[in-house]
Amino acid sequence: MINSLLERKIEKRPDKVRLPGRILFLTEDPELIKRQLAGEDLPWDTANPANNPKLRDDISTDEITPAHYCFYFDETLGEIPYLGLKCGSVFPIGRSDVKKGGFVCAVSGKRRGKGSSREQSPYAEMCAGIHLVIAENIERIYKQNCQNLGLLTSTNFSLIDQIRAGEEVPLTEFTAGEDECRAWQIPANTRAQEGAGAIHSDLEKHFIRAETIRWDQLLEAGSEANARAKGTLRLEGKDYIVQDGDVMHIRHSG
Question: Which CATH architecture describes the domain 192-252?
Answer without folding.
Answer: Roll (3.10)
